[in-house]
Design a protein that fits this description.
The complex is a heterodimer. Chain A is mainly α. Chain A has helices at residues 5-22, 29-54, 84-103, 111-130, 134-143, 145-155, 160-188, 201-205, 217-234, 243-250, 253-278, 280-284, 286-309, 313-333, 337-368, 379-382, 384-397, 404-417, 425-450, 466-484, 487-510; strands at residues 63-71, 76-82. In chain B, the strands form 2 sheets. A two-stranded antiparallel ribbon of chain B has the order 1-2. A two-stranded antiparallel sheet of chain B has the order 3-4. In chain B, helix 5 packs antiparallel against helix 6, helix 10 (238-245) packs antiparallel against helix 11 (248-273) and helix 13 (316-336) runs parallel beside helix 17. Chain B is globular. The chains are: A mainly alpha, B mainly alpha.
Chain lengths: 514, 505
């Protein structure tokens, strides 16, 4: 079992989903379904722990690789493996999926469908982070769409139909463009063994195997742009972000957590896994590189301004995600070790922090049945434990030193500022404005909701319960621990990211730039 | 013709009969149906369906027996037996078998005299066989007319229902019109080359320099006939009305069988008469007519128009009619390329389309029984009232959209792959196709949105019992739709090996 641990971690949820579907109608059906899902994702966490222990931190090559023929006559392979970049995302996915199963225990409507779809989604996410065959990657990428559509659409809030189809159309638009890019790669990268075509991402990363259309710089730029749109929609980068507030607000709590915690990371993951190493010259192309940074800065500042304007707590958290993903993009853009490591660390940290925020929003919404920031007041008196956890999450979100986000954001900003490849100083300075804004709206929200006089309407609001604490406390521990000692995650990705930078800086010379 | 030539031709005709067994079985089936129909009582009509089913399965076995035949000409090269026609014959019989099943469970046909119906269905299948094998301008025209005329009768089979009669009449008028255009085009081609055999035509066209404008007009007019059969723009106007008005099993049949036959004929005609190949991998156009460009424009226009108009439909049969127009546009992309990849992509897509489109129509038939409606808004809450049907429908719709893990995705993937393989020239068509995919999601989503998402507060969500036979049929179509989406290597290899035309006289 442990020799193909990645296959297990990808397909365990599917086994769980099948079992869930087989549970017969019974008075305890709901309970059984919940626990099957919890066990499936729990085993995933155990496997993730195993991967964490066994992962070799001193190499940038792919590990735990599994390779098998899938469609031999078209050279499509079942090819999976992880490096430092993917391992952090695999850990994050396993953790958040497990937590979200517990956050979903409140679901009453069509329980069987909900958990089966959730587990299918889990498989899709794991698959995306492990796939090394571009075709396989694409299949996993698309497999996530169906469950996500239904999870938002059936179990979501009042405007769920609109939010679900908007999410679906946006992401499908992005992924069909990726499909064309994928085909261009397939036909224009030579398989070093057979001389035929290949979907193998590692071959695609080898610039010497590029031929045909891929030897024309203009086409490389176009392919990069097509891929970028696909990934930018997922990140979501301005101006492709408008699906996000709708989807996040309408989705049930656990799904918002998955959306913000894992799905958004796929955008930046895709850039780092595919766009950067396969088309480094296009990324280094000045108009693209600076355009990328400008979008990152817009994300940070505009996301923060939008968040500040929101009355709906969940919408505010959603917009704050846009800002924080901007930080990831900023960190990536400078091509410095500090920035790259900071960006990936920020992907991980944003996953945990934003998961906490959405879970906390869910807690208060389940009690008060609204999320209007102005409608509360003085909750700290009534719910001290809840307020304590909220404070940790809010401070982590605004990047308080000692909590995880501070380190990754600082790395990202410093990395971009000290970039030698491009001059990003002025952009970084503008982007830091975003930090101030985030601190502003987070503190303002904290004050409006929890301080002051208790709103008499909520005088008997029950305190956070054990199940909710169980979902939040592990995340809070991680946030605090990584804030003090980020090495466990940084060690995982350092070698891989530094290697990526070397590869990228070599490439433009190969393509006759600069 | 001297006596030895006559003798040789006679011998050729007689020896050709041995390769005509599947057709003979179908003709025999027609006769049996005719006699049994007269003999048995009205209430015993299910037997007719069983006979039709049995006959088509025997014919399928006979077709399988021809699997390994090399390409050759029959009846003095009037027709061909080759892997290409074999592939399509299997597909036609597959759709006939499924449509017989659908007809047996359809309420619209219940209580009517179905004897003639099955006879017409069989006759159409024979016509489609000929369409896939015709290699002579005369047989091309005769086979296309055989299919058309029997389809007219099938579409208007519900004589007492106004919209069915209307469908039949519209189909006939459009059919007659496009046949006329096509016949004119064929006669021009004959005038240019002096031959009726498409292989000879190709040789003569590449040897002589025909007047490009005349040839272009001829190709354009012939395209009218093919375009009508596959329902491509601008010869698609009949499709929505006919698809809505005809009995639903007939609609399902028309949208799959004759459409595939149209593609078979189109590909054979263009790749044999107007193009030549050395190695069977890439074809080159003969003469100076850029008909691939013409097909590319038709393809882009067909998918875009079909998808855009489908958005506004409220009747599910009409929606599927426009969607089937759009799918003709997708499938046509493969024919544009003049490569082996393009041809097998189209063929693969037609198999995928057969599964998913028949599946969608099967759900429509089941729902006519369950909820007595064809309006999309009446599908509300179906996901909770008849979960199995709704899940199957969702699978078919996802496949029609082209999302993994379904066979529809694989089909679309190969079409796009063929376009990208063709180089920069047709990337624009690939981009049009993927944008159309996004558009199509919008209207397919309306159906599963109705089934699952829309508020059902005003409905009583009681389970509706679904007949076991219907569930089995759904499984027969839905399971391969998913399985072939996960592992399609055998079907793919079969399709690739079927791109062999009869091309040497």
């Amino acid at each position: 079992m442990l020799s193909n641990v990645l296959s297990w971690i990808i397909f365990l949820p599917i086994i769980g989903a099948v079992l869930v579907l087989l549970v017969p109608r019974h008075e305890k059906q709901t309970t059984i379904i919940r626990w099957i899902s919890a066990i499936a994702t729990g085993l995933q966490v155990v496997l993730a722990g195993f991967i964490f222990m066994k992962f070799d931190r001193n190499t940038a090559t792919m590990q735990m690789v599994e390779q098998a023929k899938w469609i031999p006559s078209y050279n499509i392979e079942y090819f999976i493996g992880i490096d430092g970049l993917s391992v952090s995302m695999v850990l994050l996915t396993a953790l958040l999926s497990f937590i979200c199963i517990f956050a979903s225990f409140g679901i009453e409507k069509a329980v069987k469908g909900y958990f089966a779809l959730f587990l299918l989604l889990d498989t899709g996410m794991m698959g995306v982070f492990c796939a090394l065959d571009f075709f396989l990657f694409y299949v996993f990428w698309e497999v996530m769409l169906l469950p996500m559509y239904f999870l938002i659409g059936v179990w979501g809030g009042p405007r769920r139909e609109y939010a679900a189809i908007k999410f679906f159309l946006y992401t499908l638009f992005g992924s069909v463009l990726m499909l064309i890019a994928l085909l261009v790669f397939y036909f224009n990268v030579k398989d070093p063994v057979t001389g035929g075509h290949t979907f193998n991402m590692l071959h695609m990363m080898d610039q010497t195997l590029h031929q045909g259309m891929l030897s024309q710089f203009n086409i490389r730029l176009l392919v990069f742009a097509a891929l970028y749109i696909g990934f930018a929609i997922k990140i979501p980068a301005f101006p492709f972000h408008t699906w996000l507030p709708d989807a996040h607000v309408e989705a049930p709590t656990a799904i918002s957590v998955i959306l913000a915690g894992v799905l958004l990371k796929m955008g930046t993951y895709g850039l780092l896994r595919i766009s950067y190493p396969i088309l480094p010259d296009a990324m280094m192309y000045k108009p693209f590189a600076y355009g990328f940074v400008i979008i990152a800065v817009i994300n940070i500042v505009y996301g923060a301004l939008c968040a500040m304007a929101q009355k709906d707590l969940k919408k505010m958290v959603a917009y704050s995600s846009i800002g924080h993903m901007g930080v990831v993009m900023l960190g990536m853009s400078g091509l410095t070790p500090l920035g790259m490591n900071g960006a990936v660390l920020q992907m991980f940290n944003h996953g945990t922090v934003t998961a906490m925020l959405f879970l906390l929003v869910g807690v208060i919404y389940d009690r008060a049945h609204h999320r209007d920031v102005e409608g509360f007041g003085g909750l700290a008196q009534r719910m001290p434990i809840y307020t304590g956890i909220v404070t940790v999450a809010f401070f982590a979100n605004l990047g308080l030193p000692g909590l995880s986000s501070f380190i990754s954001e600082a790395f990202s900003f410093l990395g971009a500022f000290s970039s030698t490849a491009f001059n990003l100083k002025i952009y970084t300075i503008i982007a830091t404005l975003g930090i101030v804004l985030v601190a502003g709206y987070m503190l303002w929200t904290l004050q409006r909701m929890f301080l002051g006089n208790l709103n008499p309407k909520y005088a008997d609001l029950p305190e956070i319960n054990g199940r909710e604490l169980f979902t939040l406390v592990p995340l809070a521990i991680i946030v605090i621990f990584l804030g003090v000692y980020p090495a466990p995650v940084l060690n995982l990705l350092e070698v891989t990211m530094n290697n990526l930078i070397v590869v990228m800086k070599e490439a433009p010379a190969m393509w006759g730039m600069q | 013709m001297d006596s030895t030539a006559v003798a040789r031709s006679l011998k050729d005709n007689i020896s050709s009969l041995g390769y005509f067994v599947p057709e003979f079985i179908l003709i025999g089936l027609m006769l049996v149906l005719m006699i049994v129909d007269m003999m048995i009582k009205r209430e015993k009509t299910p037997w007719l369906g069983m006979i039709a089913l049995g006959g088509s399965i025997i014919a399928l076995v006979a077709v399988f027996a021809q699997a390994s035949l090399p390409p050759m000409g029959l009846f003095n090269n009037m027709m061909a037996v080759d892997p290409f026609s074999w592939f399509f014959k299997t597909l036609f019989l597959g759709s006939m078998v499924m449509v017989v099943f659908l007809s047996m469970s359809s309420l619209e046909l219940a209580g009517r005299n179905v004897g003639e119906y099955f006879i017409l269905l069989t006759a159409t299948t024979i016509g489609m066989f000929w369409m896939a094998s015709a290699t002579n301008l005369l047989t091309i025209f005769i086979s296309i007319e055989t299919v058309s005329i029997t389809s007219f009768a099938l579409a208007s089979y519900l004589k007492t229902v106004k919209r069915s009669s209307e469908a039949g009449l519209k189909y006939t008028i459009y059919g007659a019109f496009s046949s006329g255009l096509m016949l004119y085009g064929l006669s021009l081609l004959y005038g240019l080359t002096g031959s009726l055999n498409i292989i000879e035509i190709s040789k003569i066209l590449s040897a002589s320099q025909p007047h490009p404008l005349t040839l272009f007009i001829s190709v354009l007019l012939i395209l009218a006939g093919f375009g009508y059969k596959i329902a491509s723009v601008p010869f698609h106007f009949w499709a929505p009305d006919v698809y809505e008005g005809a009995p639903t099993p007939v609609t399902a049949f028309l949208s799959v069988g004759p459409k595939a036959a149209g593609f078979a004929m189109l590909i054979r005609f263009f790749n044999t008469a107007l193009a030549t190949t050395e190695d069977g991998a890439i074809w080159y156009t003969v003469a100076d007519v850029n008909w691939p460009q013409l097909l590319a424009v038709v393809s882009a226009a067909t998918m875009t128009l079909g998808n855009l108009i489908a958005i506004k439909q409220n009747n599910i049969k009409r929606l599927l009619a426009y969607s089937s127009i759009a799918h003709a546009g997708y499938a046509l992309m493969g024919a544009v390329l003049l490569t082996c990849e393009g041809v097998y992509a189209t063929m693969f897509y037609l198999v995928a389309y057969y599964l998913m489109n028949l599946g969608a129509f099967l759900v429509v038939i089941i729902c006519q029984d369950l909820i007595k409606s064809e309006r999309i808004e009446d599908y509300r809450g179906l996901g909770f009232r008849a979960p199995a049907v709704a899940v199957a429908m969702t699978i078919f719709l996802f496949s029609l959209t082209g999302l993994p893990v379904t066979v529809g995705f694989v089909g679309k993937f190969y079409l796009l792959a063929a376009l990208v393989r063709g180089g920069e020239q047709y990337i624009w068509l690939a981009i049009v196709a993927v944008i159309n995919t996004v558009i199509s999601l919008f209207y397919y989503a309306r159906i599963f949105k109705a089934m699952y998402l829309e508020s059902t507060d005003d409905l009583v969500l009681t389970r509706i019992p679904v007949a076991t036979s219907a569930l089995v049929l759904l499984a027969i179509l839905a399971v391969p739709t998913v399985l072939l989406g996960a592992y399609w290597a055998p079907l793919f290899d079969l399709t690739v090996s079927s791109v062999k035309f009869f091309s040497e006289l």
